[in-house]
Write the structure tokens for this entry.
Amino acid sequence: MTQDELKALVGRAALHYVVPGEIVGVGTGSTVNRFIEALASVKDRIPGAVSSSSASTERLRSLGIHVFDATEVDELSVYIDGADEIDPRGFMVKGGGAALTREKIVAAQSKRFVCIADESKQVQVLGRFPLPVEVIPMAARRIARQFAGLGGSAQVRLKDGAPLVTDNGQHILDVTGLQITDPLGFETMVNQWPGVVTVGVFAHQKASVCLLGTANGVQTLTY
Ligand code: 5RP
């Protein structure tokens, strides 16, 4: 199976976790796009979705799925999103699509995080994928130096030759060269650095379940 077929497979498998009659939290990315397509087939059974990005909101609306603002909802039963990396404990790196801040907000609002990913996303230790960190632009240089102190190398993410601007009006640093052996401690530490909006380590908001697309079908991992 191609990577895209694996994404479609886990996107469909995630429908099993959508609770009829309840609003569903929806992440961002190419795997989630396949989930959104599947969700359209059951849209009459749910009131709608809370979305983690402008891109997903647009896609949900184009398929006739109502999008609620996160502030209209107290708690979601489930949040479904992809990952750039997932380790054996369900800790993840996210933010390859620059939506990490809203993703973490909606994940924190949800009882359960169902991660949908193809098997290329599985790692033993987080850090192979450049770690996305959303930052206030005036702090970017200093935060890059703080990562250098940990052995990392941070680059401002560019789009069309200029710093990419997130849905929240901020910038993204992509940090290479890290081995994140203590994801909970690492997330807590980086969260304290002035100017960090969100670090792309999802340890405090880790996955409860991962639906992993493999050559042998969907593997369900629970944490
Ligand atoms: C976006 C994300 C995505 O979930 C992550 O980048 C995975 O994306 P894809 O499904 O396209 O591989 O965190 O900010």
Residues 27-31, 81-84, 94-100, 103 surround ribulose-5-phosphate (CB under 6 Å). The radius of gyration is 17 Å. The CA atoms of residues 130 and 141 lie 17 Å apart. Residues 3-13 form the longest helix (11 residues).
